[in-house]
Predict the 3D structure of the following.
Amino acid sequence: MGHHVKLPTVEELQLPADHPWRNVPKIGMTLGLVCFAVAWFAGGDHHQFLFAYLAAFLFTLGLALGSLFFTLFQHAASAGWSVVVRRTAENLMAPLPVFILLFLPIFFGRHELYHHWMDLEHAKHDPILVGKAPFLNEGFWMIRAAVYLSVWTVLSWWFRSNSVAQDTEGGEAITRKLQVTSYPGVIAFGLTITFAGIDWAMSLDPHWYSTMWGVYYFANSIVSAFALLGLTLLLLRERGVLEGVVTKEHYHDIGKFVFAFTVFWAYIGFSQYFLIWYANIPEETMFYSHRGGSWSNLGAALMVGHFAIPFLFLMGRSIKRYAPTLKAACIWVIVFCFLDIYYVVMPTHYKYGFSFGLTELLCLVGMVSIYAAVATRFMASAALVPHGDPRLKESLAFTNF
Amino acid sequence: MADDKLYGVLAEFTDPAALFTACEQVRDQGFKNWDAHTPYPVHGLDGAMGMKPSSVPWIALVSGLSGAAGGFLLQTWVSVSAWPLVISGKPLFAWQAFVPVTFECGVLAAALGALIGMLFLNRLPMHYNPLFSSARFEAASDDRFFISIEASDPSFDAEQTGSFLEGLGASHVELVKE
């Protein structure tokens, strides 16, 4: 009944040899390194560079981690519809091992970024920091960072390499293996992203704490990754790649995810704010008092731009099924996901009000370029669809009600 | 009751694929007052029948927004003018505290609006339909697929419409009285 599925040939599922994205690995890597070098040598002081770098790092890491989560829960749920878009998510998570290298500036700049609690001389006169020292100390922080980065490296490698192996092997064995391993994978993912958010963003303000912090970083990462997944597929489609394979039925579902997790982000962000507002305890409200002045304008902009506008815009069915409107929504959402991270990180540096300078821009462009370079390299290295997956036909024939 | 008015014609199909293509034909013939009856949802049948998108989402949107606005205004009125109480040092108009109830009122009204709107548009509850007089129609909830075309349709003609449906592969065609 309309389910006449034409199986695409393996050649149709590759990134075409003349596709401009084949040049992105070289251009992106060069551009990224140049941006970082200019920001470091020609930009402002190194303190500013480190904070700008941290903001760009956490945003881009969120894109990769969100894509990892997408891959994990598609396996966990044994989802059939998403097979034709899953490889793109796998390619977007595949750069995770590179974040070990990208983490080095944060590692070497740790005493500038987290000096409040990392300097023992400073911390031992502060009873709150003494109390938190069993967790917030330099050695343990380094061990945890090593654990997070290793877990993400292993997970992204395991789920992508097995999926690529299935392209030639086929069969159900790999599908079952990935489904079974996705359950501990989801748990490991949840714990690492939560504590990474605490270690690298919340500890910038070590007196402050929020028990919702991990899920707040998670929520923002997931929205940005879904929007990036949609945007990547829509950009591929503009040159006819995966035409008739990834259809508007799949875009519709990705749009639903962006919509749903926009609501989820607002729910988490408001819940965090609401409890702090109600209790009105100085050690909790300080997060918002440190974001006063012109920073509060950005906070208000997040409420409107990260929630209200995409919520109302993406509500309609036809908006999510029409490529130009979905593309606009994806770009908008990604921009506001960055602004959310910026609102979290940068007030620690710009204490007296909002500022966005050349250093911040260079760090963002540099980080995203390197990420894009690695991701497109993975796109070029294997088929864009896991065509050995036994659920491929189901995914091709997928329709929404 | 010999003077019973003709209600329409009922055609029975044995498999969903035959029903699906028959629906496309009936749609292309320009019939308006007709329906398909299946024991389970058939994917894409709304497209084959040429059905327009439902207006239930718009009803849900309007009722949801009204519910949210009503919830917000009720709290504002109660806290600010009807019974002003200072709670934990917050201002009387503390919009932050109103958000959860506003949200819940919006969800409740949207859900009720969607339910009532769906019932209204489907003309439910409907306790009797002339099709129930057909003994074969009971199989519509078992293993048979039906198309009914009502006599009120402008292009309806008792003989021609019946033979048209037979030509589409119906295994059995009968006239149904009011």
In short: The mean pLDDT of chain A is 94. The CA atoms of residues 242 and 314 of chain A lie 24 Å apart.
